[in-house]
Amino acid sequence: MHRLFKYIGGDKAIWMVVLFMALSSSLLVYSSIVTLAYKYQGGNTMYYGLKHALFIVTGFGFIYVIHKVDYKYFSRVAQLLFWLSVPLLLLTLLMGANLNNASRWLVIPVINQSFQTSDLAKLALIMFTARTLSLKKDQLGSFTQGFLPLLIPVGIICVLILPANFSTAAVLFTTCMMLMFMAGVKLTHMATLIPAGIAALGLVFLIASVKPDLFPRAETWKKRVERYFGDEPDRDGNYQVEQAKIAIATGGVLGKGPGHSTQRNFLPHPYSDFIYAIVLEEYGLFGGIIVLMFYLVLLFRSIKIVQKVEHSFAAYLVLGLSFSLVFQGLINMAVNVNLLPVTGQPLPLVSMGGTSLWFTCISLGIILSVSRYVEQGAKKEEEKKGGNYVVS
User: Fold this and answer.
1) Domain containing 219: what range?
2) What are the pLDDT digits (tens) for 23-62?
3) Which of 45, 87, 235, 353 is most buried, judging by how many CB atoms fall within 10 Å of its CB?
4) 133: closest CA among 122, 120, 149?
5) Domains in the chain: how many in total?
6) Which is it for strands 113-116 and 102-108: parallel, antiparallel or unpaired?
7) Dihedrals φ, ψ of 339, to 5°?
């Protein structure tokens, strides 16, 4: 392992977290794809297992290549990705593959792989927000010169994601607001969004009631909230939650063991949205806490990077990307244990996925790129002083 670290830079704790999460993902996905394999591949679980392994291996390739890139180049890339994501989101809404009244995917013709454009948009917007915050750091106290130039791009991307994926739009909007707050945007400016957001949400449901075709997912959002807060259980609507509860209850403290899940045969999407329920069933409370700790370590080490980095763009970039990944992971876990209404958020780097897993790896590569820069700067300082450099 020590020899391997000679060829990679950046925070070694993050590398270890990523490695263990990828290994855990391989075991969990292979265990949870039984029904999917019988439905589409005649019981051939190796098809999905090898496909997922290929995405993980290529994802690690992305992490390695990107972490070698100077993070300053990402400021220019952010502009390109932002302006690319806007037409792609529009194209997805108009011509994307439709599933459960939601157009979220475009199909890449050559490799016949579905591509969720919101994953690109999330990465692009966080990078673009970090860039704008660093450029306007002296104007953040102004509503027109500081806040509006930040809010408009966030609004454009979130509005384009919203019709097909409310939870993704909400997570992305929250991440960007958190970045603005940490950067020093006035709370009074941000507070103006509360009545505006309530009015906009009311308008969406009003339009959906008159023209259901414009917001076909609005009824789904409404039902999920009603089921969650309802006094009497809706057995059909709460099916996913009830099956997840059974998985958690039967898992106990130590779990049933790898590959011994029974609820994988009943849970919808046990390999993605409800994979944390499989974690708790097969590895018990102990395994669930370990997975939770992975995300907390990732956030903690990212904050350590932010504290050491000198440039504001790098700090906002690491903060935004790490918070987005950890926040999404916490939401997935909260849904699985019935702390939040059902959403469509996968568990980053653990759930089965194609391009979504790749974009997670790209985000981690960017975080490690900044970490590598911090590491090299610290090493140069130690060399100037004539001391020995030790990575903390």
Assistant:
1) 2-377
2) 999 999 999 988 888 888 887 888 888 999 999 999 999 9
3) 353
4) 149
5) 1
6) antiparallel
7) -90, -20
